[in-house]
Amino acid sequence: MLMPEPDRATMARRDEIVAALRAIVPGGVIDRAEGMRVYESDGLTAYRQLPLVVVLPETTAQVAEVMRWCGANQVRVVPRGAGTSLSGGALPLADGVLLGMARFNRVLSIDADNRCAVVQPGVTNLGISQAVAHLGFYYAPDPSSQIACTIGGNVAENSGGVHSLKYGLTTNNVLGVEIVTIDGEVIRLGGRHLDSEGYDLLGIVIGSEGLLGVVTEVTVRILPKPATARAVLIGFPTSESAGGCVAAIIAAGIIPGGMEMMDRPAIHAAEDFVHAGYPRDVEALLIVELDGPKAEVDHLIERVAAIARDQGSVTLRISETEAERLIFWAGRKAAFPAVGRISPDYYCMDGTIPRHRLPLVLSRMREMEAVHGLRVANVFHAGDGNLHPLILYDANKPGELERAEAFGSDILRLCVEVGGVLTGEHGVGVEKRDLMGTMFNESDLAHQQRLKCAFDPDGLLNPGKVFPTLHRCAELGRLHVSGGKLPFPDLPRF
């Protein structure tokens, strides 16, 4: 994985850079190797790199001053939240400042009347729901890592979760952000109101993976807890029949609060770990949750059960108590660590496909197992087609990591081939960077990079991520002259 070549002049100025940062953030700078080791990678642990220095600001003013100094002195900056990114989005640079936002961990205000809360980016996803629970509210997006991942990282990656099918991703649940640009300017986008006029700059920032600015405050939408929530645990003889059931439920006009799928390897791993009562004699398991008024939920449960039987289900359990519903979900929520018990390493992929292509894609993945000589366990958000195949490998065996990466690339190419996209919520980072050309042409990528240039003209924020080839901003704006003539000379130039 090639990253930008470290700038030797910057490396030579390390003592100067550390001293300047210490003056801005007293007591918040880590420059010794043993202290920086915990920041050398994020959740994509296959790639590691010590940063030049780590700085941990506590205030927006400190972030602005750090950014201003780095911008003026041409020092690269990599923002980092909790480090749970699975795409290498927070991978440090040898010549870059790693800007850790963990100290921004306060809930600033809760506005139940306007159904929103203002929080700092270091507040965990689950922490928001816990902070508003006494008022009968919760924060709808809930990644499986919600106990650890922070809202700032959710904004950077546009994270989803098991309830995103009905309630949307991060972008659908964030009303406003405060960001700091590379020149130290503090900008507010959106707010406590539903929408803003003009360009959708908020939509640009959410999912921008730290390439445009550093988020220092987030206004999130909070929702009243549903009156009733019940889950259905449905077993199928094949993954293809389970995928067909997913499509049939949505086609029937039913939008569950969550609809998750696991295949046999994941089912057994989760059951061994959590003891949730999952059936072991099925090839695929669906968890379908319905929420809302009790009468509506009871009616929809019956309809889902009927659809499941029509699609060939072999087991079906309906939660009768809140404790039973939670234990259904406990296995799914713990699936990733559970799979870690059956394989020394696993490579978690993230791609999204049209729901009706689920049976085909799952079948093709089984064929790929034989080609690459590696197993895959599937745990994913079936309702919105967001796949999370876990490719099992052993990094201690020569060549297995490379085979896992090749397997993952083939899965992502398949997602694009059937009309899907490279990522649903984990982001591009470094993991999918070199596959961007399978989904976008040169013109598409150039336009995306021009947007980055508008925010970060010198390319100092999180370079080496997302774009397979990062052109200099001046190169992107240059007109090419051939034979002494401009292209289309009759067009006016501005």
Brief digest:
With 494 residues, the chain is an alpha+beta fold. It has helices at residues 8-12, 14-24, 33-36, 60-72, 125-132, 151-157, 164-167, 201-205, 239-251, 264-274, 294-310, 322-333, 335-339, 358-372, 400-417, 442-455, 473-476; strands at 29-30, 53-55, 76-80, 96-100, 107-111, 116-119, 137-138, 174-180, 186-190, 214-221, 223-224, 228-236, 258-263, 284-292, 315-318, 345-348, 351-352, 375-380, 386-387, 389-393. The protein folds into 5 domains: 8-100, Uridine Diphospho-n-acetylenolpyruvylglucosamine Reductase, domain 2 (2-Layer Sandwich); 107-224, Uridine Diphospho-n-acetylenolpyruvylglucosamine Reductase, domain 3 (2-Layer Sandwich), CATH 3.30.465; 228-337, Alpha-Beta Plaits (2-Layer Sandwich), CATH 3.30.70.2190; 343-435, Alpha-Beta Plaits, CATH 3.30.70; 443-494, no CATH class.
Largest sheet: 7 strands, antiparallel
Mean pLDDT across every amino acid position: 93
Q: Which structural class fits the helix and strand makeup?
A: alpha+beta
Helix content: 25-40%
Protein name: Glycolate oxidase
Domain FAD-binding PCMH-type: 47-225
Cofactor: FAD
GO molecular function, one term: oxidoreductase activity
Please write out the topology.
Elements: H1 8-12, H2 14-24, E1 29-30, H3 33-36, E2 53-55, H4 60-72, E3 76-80, E4 96-100, E5 107-111, E6 116-119, H5 125-132, E7 137-138, H6 151-157, H7 164-167, E8 174-180, E9 186-190, H8 201-205, E10 214-221, E11 223-224, E12 228-236, H9 239-251, E13 258-263, H10 264-274, E14 284-292, H11 294-310, E15 315-318, H12 322-333, H13 335-339, E16 345-348, E17 351-352, H14 358-372, E18 375-380, E19 386-387, E20 389-393, H15 400-417, H16 442-455, H17 473-476
Parallel strand pairs: 2-4, 3-4
Antiparallel strand pairs: 1-2, 5-6, 6-10, 7-11, 8-9, 8-10, 12-14, 12-15, 13-14, 13-18, 16-20, 17-19, 18-20
Helix pairs in contact: 9-11, 9-14, 10-12, 14-15
